[in-house]
């Protein structure tokens, strides 16, 4: 363990083996840093925050600050960060809030680029990439493998499903399905994230099934997105294909926000982005 003489580690903080705390960092009394965690310089870890093993936190990040809401009395609020995460310069992640679950939770092996923010009570999966300046409002859920382009912003209480891709400068006020690609100031689906699917070695027949189900739900169906999803489900045509069933379950799950619609209801818009 190495702690720079200019760093402040308050009494009560728990530091694992091999932790490195650089110049002018502050570690609060309720913080827990796992084995091999590195704070490079000028980083703050405060509140009831646990940081998993081998996570690196770059300068001027503030991890575990109080939720940015009025009248928040949340003495039990926590932040849990998994292992192997990379938090670049100026990243901010808030504790949970009394108005939520008192918990903000970040999974493993995520890459949060400079200036990105994750609000209170968010749940973020594994292997997520948030590019520079991405802003996530409170109570938001992000599935595994999601990529969000620079300066994208997500309104509170929403969801982005696994392996979706959000283009830069997008505004997310609706729920984005798993494997989808969302584009625009007020996002619309531009199809499926085909390159992401191929990178994850999803079998070609499964990709074909996802494309066909996408067309049936978003482009060819005559009813609402939910009605079309129920029709696809009841048809049994893609029963047993986990990825299609995941998309249908996401659409039909109880949610605060509506599902993001496709940019067009005429034609095949699957994207190669």
Give a topology summary.
Blueprint: E1 2-3, E2 8-9, E3 14-15, E4 20-21, E5 26-27, E6 32-33, E7 38-39, E8 44-45, E9 48-51, E10 56-57, E11 62-65, E12 78-81, E13 86-87, E14 92-94, E15 103-106, E16 111-112, E17 117-118, E18 123-124, E19 129-130, E20 135-136, E21 141-142, E22 147-148, E23 153-154, E24 159-160, E25 165-166, E26 171-172, E27 180-183, E28 188-192, H1 194-199, H2 204-220, H3 225-235, H4 242-252
Parallel strand pairs: 1-4, 2-5, 3-6, 4-7, 5-8, 6-9, 7-10, 8-11, 9-12, 10-13, 11-14, 12-15, 13-16, 14-17, 15-18, 16-19, 17-20, 18-21, 19-22, 20-23, 21-24, 22-25, 23-26, 25-27
Antiparallel strand pairs: 27-28
Helix pairs in contact: 2-3, 3-4
Structural category is alpha/beta
Q: Please list the strands of the largest sheet in the order they lie side by side.
A: 1-4-7-10-13-16-19-22-25-27-28
The total count of helices amounts to: 4
By oligomeric state, this entry counts as single chain
CATH homologous superfamily placement of the domain at 2-157: Hexapeptide repeat proteins
**Computed Rg:** 20 Å
Q: What is the CATH fold-level name of the domain at 2-157? A: UDP N-Acetylglucosamine Acyltransferase, domain 1
Mean of the pLDDT scores?
Answer: 96
Number of strands: 28
The rounded distance between the terminal residues' Cα atoms is 43 Å
Query: Portion of residues in helices?
Result: 10-25%
CATH class designation of the domain at 2-157: Mainly Beta
Unreliable stretches (pLDDT < 50, length at least 5) are: none
Strand content: 25-35%
Return the CATH architecture of the domain at 2-157: 3 Solenoid
């Amino acid at each position: 363990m190495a702690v720079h003489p200019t760093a402040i580690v308050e009494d009560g903080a728990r530091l694992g083996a091999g932790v490195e705390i650089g110049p002018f960092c502050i570690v609060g009394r309720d913080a827990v840093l796992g084995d091999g965690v590195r704070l490079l310089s000028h980083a703050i870890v405060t509140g009831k925050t646990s940081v998993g093993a081998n996570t690196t936190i770059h300068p001027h990040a503030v991890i575990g600050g109080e939720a940015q809401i009025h009248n928040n009395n949340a003495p039990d609020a926590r932040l849990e960060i998994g292992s192997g995460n990379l938090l670049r310069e100026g990243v901010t992640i808030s504790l949970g809030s009394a108005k939520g679950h008192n918990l903000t939770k970040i999974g493993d092996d995520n890459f949060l680029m400079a200036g990105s923010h994750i609000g209170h009570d968010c749940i973020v999966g594994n292997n997520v990439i948030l590019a520079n300046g991405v802003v996530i409002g409170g109570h938001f859920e992000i599935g595994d493998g999601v990529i969000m382009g620079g300066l994208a912003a997500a309104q509170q209480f929403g969801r982005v499903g696994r392996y979706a891709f959000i283009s830069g400068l997008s505004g997310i006020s609706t729920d984005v399905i798993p494997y989808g690609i969302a584009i625009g100031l007020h996002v619309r689906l531009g199809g499926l994230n085909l390159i992401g699917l191929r990178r994850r070695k999803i079998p070609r027949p499964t990709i074909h099934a996802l494309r066909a189900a996408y067309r049936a739900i978003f482009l060819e169906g005559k009813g609402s997105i939910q009605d079309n999803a129920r029709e696809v489900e009841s048809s049994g045509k893609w029963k047993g294909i986990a990825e299609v069933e995941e998309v249908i379950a996401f659409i039909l799950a109880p949610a605060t926000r509506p599902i993001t619609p496709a940019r067009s209801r005429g034609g095949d818009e699957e994207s190669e982005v």
